[in-house]
Amino acid sequence: RCVVLDSGKTYYYSNLVLALGGKTTYFDTPGAAEYALPFTSADEAVALSHRIKDNLNQAVQTKDSEARKQLLTVAIIGAGPAGVELACTLADLMPIWCVEAGADPEELRVVLVNRSDEILKGDINSRLRDTAKAALQNRTVPVELLLDATVTGISADGLEYTKQDQMHFLPAKAISWTAGTEPAPLLRDLPIPSAHKDKRGRLQVTPTLQLPDFPEVFVGGDCAYIDSNPQPATAQAAYQQGTAIARNLKALAQGDMLKPARITMRGTLMKLGLGEGVANLFDRLEVGGKAGHLIREGT
């Protein structure tokens, strides 16, 4: 019942909440950690924009056509919601940055690379696939889809991939990785039986979001899974779990009964370029275009 920090400080507790989120995983892809830019925080988004703008400025001064095309190409690995949103946004933003830098927007390429044969496959947003596909094509720079392609290596000059059992190379000086996350490394070191972890390393919790073997510990967000009622790793699920944990901590303090967490998915929202979005409201109504964008911004 204590938390030990790197600094040496120790905090003893009567109850603990684990809400560590997740971290980018590269699935042991050679060169990915060194050369691909992750996309899970504001700082990482800023770092990506700086890389792209630096490449655009270099492209203006590069006379070799192949080297220039390489500088003007952005590859995004992973066609889940983060990859689709990023591709759409960059396909609208990069022409603006290109003009500011004095480069030729006609040579810009945004390539979305995905291992499966469909975008948004197995995701809560999968029903928005057709809308997302249309949006990818209707950007200022149409997004190129490279599907059924397995990335086998990444370097400073681009990425290697296999498609239909053949090896290919995509030259690109800016590569963003949105292909997956895993729970925080700390979870691996906790004395939790493997039977109470899923294949991703998330911790099994009871309906009240407690660890079966350590009921004084609550777990939420990307760290937790419930066998009987699995939830997507989205903010709206995590927020509701946080509320449920807070209520149960209060109930414990007051000697009241704990209540199972009730998670209600209210739909999904996606950004599909500048000033455009789509809202799937309660899995019943789809609102796209500027109206979808306003709903997302308001939310």
Task: Tell me what the structure shows.
This protein is α/β, with parallel strands linked by helices. It is 31% helix and 24% strand. The protein has eight helices and 19 strands. The chain has helices spanning 32-35, 42-60, 65-71, 81-101, 129-137, 186-189, 235-254, 289-298, and strands at 2-4, 10-12, 16-18, 22-24, 37-38, 73-77, 109-113, 144-146, 150-155, 158-163, 166-171, 174-177, 181-183, 203-204, 217-219, 224-225, 267-271, 277-281, 285-287. The strands form seven sheets. The chain has a five-stranded parallel β-sheet with strand order 5-12-6-7-8. A three-stranded antiparallel β-sheet has the order 9-10-11. Helix 4 (81-101) links the parallel strand 6 and strand 7 (109-113). Helix 2 packs antiparallel against helix 3 (65-71). The model has no long low-confidence stretch (mean pLDDT 93).
